[in-house]
Amino acid sequence: MQQAVAREVKLPAGYSLSWSGQSNSLERATAKLKIVVPATLVSSLCCSIHVPRFVEAFLIMATLPFALVGGFG
């Protein structure tokens, strides 16, 4: 949408356009997910390589959210 508006709408000198609301929130969430998802996959892979049994690896990964909450609390 932003590209279409930038292409089609010509603003007079001294005017500017800014986007806010859901589109702004979506861009921030997408930028965060580009970092979080690969980091999660890498940490899961490392955990599964170092822990031979799946159950043990799952228990370790399940405690990570609680550790993060404790770190912020």
Task: Write a structural description.
By secondary structure, the chain is an all-alpha fold. Helix content is 75%, strand content 0%. The protein is built from 3 helices and no strands. The protein has helices spanning 2-8, 22-50, 54-72. The longest helix is centred in the middle third of the chain and has 29 residues, at 22-50. The radius of gyration is 21 Å and the shape is elongated. The mean pLDDT is 82.
Topology:
Layout: H1 2-8, H2 22-50, H3 54-72
Helix content: over 70%
Largest sheet: none
Number of strands: 0
Assign the structural class, choosing from mainly alpha, mainly beta, alpha/beta, alpha+beta, or little secondary structure.
mainly alpha
Global morphology: elongated
- Beta-sheet strand percentage? under 5%
Task: Count the DSSP helices.
Answer: 3
From the N-terminal CA to the C-terminal CA, the straight-line distance is 40 Å
Order of helices and strands: HHH
Spans with pLDDT under 50 lasting ≥5 residues? none
Rg over CA atoms, rounded to whole Å, is 21 Å
Question: Quick check: average pLDDT?
Answer: 82
